[in-house]
Structures are given as structure tokens and as C-alpha cells.
Specification:
Layout (H helix, E strand, L loop, with lengths): L8 E4 L5 H11 L3 E6 L16 E2 L2 E2 H6 L4 E4 L5 H10 L5 E4 L5 H4 L4 H7 L4 E6 L14 H7 L20 H24 L4 E5 H8 L1 H8 L22 E4 L4 E4 L4 H7 L3 H4 L10 H11 L5 H10 L4 E3 L3 H4 L3 H5 L3 E6 L3 E6 L25 H7 L4 H9 L4
Helix pairs in contact: 1-7, 7-8
């Protein structure tokens, strides 16, 4: 069965989280992704991992975002490596990079020059703050941009420090945006015959994630005041937040106060007009907090569902991986890595009827330089040439 991106070749200079996540999505749907890495050292994400998660010398940060790729080691500071890339570019459909602005141009690998070698080339790049502007040279990293973008300031309690998202949401959203841009450019190339430059940034991803509340704000509504009781959003009325049960916790979303009064047997709530649900949100939450610890999460969810109250349990990762919906959606796929053994991968979030999950490639992340010889032979080098390049540190 043909995959959506079968026959598409990607040359990836992407590193860290966002770029590798984008190219992994392309590889998941059939693209041939060639990951360029430093000889002997590898990509930056091979050397560091959250909580120091290494096994047999392999980094789980790298493993999580680099399946369905080939590893090609090149010393980009050597002119001969650039000449090798020049020979590959006519065979490539997409180049992806997420270095700081100007780095690829200094390496002589910028869009203007490479598109001259291949006018059909789609060149996709992502930065922290954009390739131009006063912040262009600042370090762009998920947490930093959460701070700069206003996103972090929306979380937490009033009067306390802001609480940013605890996961790299900007990396993953920017990755999806970059992959989307690549696919749009490929579609347009089908009619024009020409590639183009695709750009996004972590800052643009952060602003896009905040499209709803930021829209309210720029149109005259100040919805940035956080609650003192720690509701989950500054701009949603109570009960929007997390509540303690006798054995865990659960979340309540947007619920009419009259319904809350009935479900939780709190007569005081029925006396509060719905129009005051935002103004009096801390009072509402305090009333609920006095009652919710009296029953288990399952008991509260049963009652809430009878009244069509929007609610859900708060699952930990321990319970998530055992959850029936998680299992039904088949999120975990196992690959066999040559050094680590079995690795459980988190599948791509897209399901296509024409390319069922069982038809998607399921290749383990590559070991460093695993495909270097193969790609060098493709451009005409023989074993002696490759030995010399390796001896001189070019590959």
C-alpha cells in the first residue's frame, strides 16, 4: 500500500526537539528522512536526556523523536562535506533545519544557494523567534518562549509565581506546523513545479496556541487575571479546574451552576447567578472543595455523567498506559533497536483510512552513522574514498 509521502526525500539538519519531531512525522508517513549528524558525536539530542534516561549508552530523548530515519554523519565545517550535500540536493525534495538564524547561510547551506541547485526544493526552517527582528539571535527553547509569549503567565494562582506547561508543548506544536507547511508546499509544487521557503518559530507556535484568549485580549477584554484558588484557566468561569476526591482527583469543565448545586448537593451554588460565575469563581471553588473529598473519583464521575456534567478523571502516566481508550487507539508500537532491544514508541497522532497504522513504517531510530556508507555510495564514492573521508574526519 502506497503511503502519502512515499517517494519524498528529506534531508534533515534538525536538532533538539521541534525539528526532529517534525521530520519524524514525515518519516512516519513514508518519506525517506536522512538525518545529518556530527561524526563521532551525533546530533545534540543524542547527548542529553530528560531525567538522564539512557540505556546501553543510547539516549531516550533521541530515541523518542528519530524513528523512521537514516543517520548520515558529515562534518559541516569541512568544505568536502558541503560538496557531498550539493551532490545530494538534486535528489532531495525537502530540507529541514532549526538552527539559529544565519547558521545555515554561514555553512553555505542556506535556502538561496540550495534552491539554486534544485528549484523544486522545499526548504523548511524553524527558529525560536523568527529569522528577523530584535529577538532573532536569542536562544529559542520551549520554556524560554513560554515565558516570552505570555503563555506561562496564564497558569497558576493569583499572587503566586506563574506555572508554565510541564511538557514541551511549543516544540511539538511547532513541529506539527512545520510538517503542515511542508505538505502544503509539496501540494503547491505539484501545480507550479517550484519549491519555496517555509518558516515558523516557537514564538509563532506559542501565539497560535493562545489564539482564543489572546483574541479576547486584543479586542478589549482583559482575561489575564488568575484565580486565587488555582482554577485551570484565567478566562473560564468556575468550576473549570481540578478537584480532590477521596482517592485521587478529577476535573470539571464548563458546567451551569444550577446543575452543580444539584450534583454536589450544595444549595449555596443555586443562589449564585450564572452571570457571576467568573466574578465569584474563588467562592464557588471553595464550596466545591469542601464537598468533593467525601467521595471517590469513580463515584463522582458516575453522578456527574447522569446529569451530563463535563468531567474526567485525572490519570497519571501509570494509569494512562492501562486506560482502555489509550489501549484501543493503539498508541504504543514496539521496535527492536540493535543496542537497546525493545523500545516502545509513541505513534503519530494522525490516522488515515488510506494508510492504516499497520501499513506505516516502524523502523527503530538509527545508530550514529548507520547509513553513511550507503548514501556516499549513492553519489558514486567507493570503499577507498569513504575510508579516506572517515580517516580525515569528513564523515
Amino acid at each position: 500500500m502506497a503511503l502519502p509521502l512515499e517517494g519524498i526525500r528529506v534531508l534533515s539538519f534538525a536538532q533538539l526537539g521541534q525539528g526532529p519531531a517534525a521530520t519524524q512525522m514525515l518519516g512516519d508517513y513514508g518519506a525517506e528522512v536522512i538525518k545529518v549528524e556530527r561524526p563521532g558525536v551525533g546530533a545534540w539530542e543524542r547527548g542529553t536526556s530528560g531525567a538522564g534516561c539512557f540505556r546501553d549508552g543510547e539516549n531516550f530523548f533521541f530515541l523518542s523523536l528519530n524513528r523512521n530515519k537514516k543517520s548520515f554523519t558529515l562534518n559541516l565545517k569541512d568544505k568536502r562535506a558541503i560538496e557531498i550535500i550539493d551532490q545530494l540536493i538534486p535528489t532531495v525534495d525537502i530540507v529541514v533545519e532549526n538552527y539559529r538564524p544565519g547558521v545555515m547561510d554561514r555553512l553555505d547551506l542556506g535556502y538561496d544557494r540550495l534552491s539554486g541547485l534544485n528549484p523544486r526544493l522545499v526548504y523548511a526552517r524553524s527558529t525560536g523567534y523568527g529569522s528577523e527582528g530584535p529577538y532573532r539571535d536569542l536562544p529559542g527553547q520551549d520554556l524560554l518562549v513560554q515565558g516570552v509569549s505570555g503563555l506561562a503567565a496564564m497558569g497558576g494562582k493569583d499572587g503566586e509565581l506563574p506555572v508554565p506547561a510541564s511538557i514541551p508543548i511549543l516544540d511539538m506544536h511547532a513541529a506539527a506546523l512545520l510538517a503542515l507547511g511542508v505538505c502544503m508546499a509539496l501540494i503547491q509544487r505539484g501545480s507550479t513545479g517550484r519549491g519555496q521557503l517555509i518558516e515558523t518559530s516557537l514564538l509563532e507556535a506559542a501565539v497560535h496556541l493562545q489564539a482564543e484568549p489572546l483574541f479576547y485580549f486584543v479586542n478589549g477584554w482583559d482575561i489575564t487575571k488568575r484565580s486565587k484558588s488555582g482554577l485551570a484557566s484565567p478566562y473560564h468561569p468556575a468550576p473549570y479546574g481540578v478537584y480532590q476526591s477521596s482517592d485521587g482527583s478529577f476535573v470539571l469543565s464548563v458546567v451551569p451552576l444550577q446543575t452543580l448545586a444539584t450534583v454536589f448537593a450544595i444549595p449555596e451554588l443555586s443562589k449564585i447567578d450564572q452571570s457571576e460565575a467568573t466574578q465569584r469563581r474563588d467562592e464557588i471553588k471553595r464550596l466545591l472543595d469542601q464537598v468533593t473529598p467525601t467521595k471517590s473519583t469513580a463515584q463522582w464521575l458516575d453522578v456527574c455523567k447522569k446529569y451530563d456534567v463535563w468531567c474526567a478523571p485525572v490519570l497519571t502516566y501509570h494509569s494512562l498506559v492501562e486506560d482502555p481508550q489509550f489501549r484501543y487507539l493503539d498508541f504504543l508500537h514496539t521496535v527492536l533497536h540493535p543496542k537497546v532491544g525493545e523500545v516502545h514508541m509513541i505513534r503519530s497522532p494522525l490516522r488515515l483510512s488510506g494508510s492504516p497504522l499497520s501499513a506505516l513504517p516502524n523502523n527503530a531510530p538509527p545508530t550514529l552513522g548507520q547509513n553513511t556508507d550507503e548514501l556516499l555510495m549513492e553519489i558514486g564514492l567507493d570503499a577507498a574514498d569513504i575510508r579516506l573521508l572517515r580517516h580525515e574526519g569528513v564523515v
